[in-house]
Predict the structure.
Amino acid sequence: MVGARKRGVKKSKQKLCMVPGVGHVWMLTMTTRRQFFSTALGTAFATPLLSQEAKLSYKGENIHFGLVTYMWGADWDLPTLIKNCETADVLGVELRIEHAHKVEPSLNAAQRNEVRQRFEDSPVEILGMGTNCEFHSADASEVRKQIDLAKDYIKLSHDIGGSGVKVKPNNLPKEVPVAKTLEQIGKSLAEIGDYALGFGQEIRLEVHGGVSDLGHIKTVMEAAARDNVRVCWNSNDEDLKGDGIVKNFAKVQPFLGATTHIREVNEGTYPYPELARLLVEADYAGWVLLEARTKPGDRVAALAEQKKLFMELVTKARAAAA
C-alpha cells in the first residue's frame, strides 16, 4: 500500500462527493466508499451501492482526481479557480507558482488566512504548492538559495492549509559526476524534509527534466531517506524506456507520495490504462493530478471529461483486480 494511507495521513475535512443514485453528499476526505456507504447512507441506500462495489477490488478505492494549475488554471484567479473546479467536480488542486491566483510567499498572515478560508469554505482541497525549487546546481550558494526558497514555500503551504510542496531534481551538470549530483539532491531533500516535518508537510519530488530516469530517482530517494520525502510520478516518455513502465514503476513504488501527475488521457501515446492498473495494484491512496498541455475552448468541460476518462480506467483496473 502506498500514498497517504500508508503514512497515516488522516483528513478530517469534509468533501462534497458524488454518490451514484443519491447525488452530492458530504463525507470525510479519506473515508473509503465502502465505509461511507455502510455508515452514512443507511441500509436502504447502502445495499445496492455495496453490491456495485463488490464487483471491484478494494485496491484503488482511494484514488482521487485533481488539477495542477499549469496552463488550464494558470490565468484563473483564486475565486475562479475554486468555482471552476467545483463545476468540473475536480476537488483537489496543486497551486503552481507565478500564476494568476497569486499565492506566493510574499502573502502576509491575513492574506494567507484568506486563501485558507476560501478553500475551507469550498469542497475543493488545497493540496499544496507546485514550485520550481531544484537542487542540482554545481554552485553551492545556488543550492543553499533553493533550499531556503523551498522552506519559504513549506511555510506557505502550511499556512494556507496545504499538505505538501512539489520540487524538482531537474538536471545533471556535465562537469560533475552523476553519483555526486544525485547524492547532493538527496541530501538537500533530507534537509527540507526535516524542516517540513515541523509543518506537517510532504516534500514531493517530481520526476522531471534531466533527472527523469527512474533509477536515478530511486538513488536520490535512498540518499534522502526521509519518510515525508516522496516521489511525484510525472508520466514522462522516459518511463517507457529501458526496463519499461512496469519495472520502472517498481523502482519508485515504495516512495510514491500523495500526488501523481498525468497529461491529457486522450492525447498522445502514453499508456494510461497501464498506469491506472499499476496504481490500483499498488493500492495507491492519493491524488492523480492533471497537468494539461492542450488548449481547449471550454477548459471546465474538458477538465470534467479528463476526470471521467481517467477514473473510468481506474474502475476497469479495479474490476480486473477483483
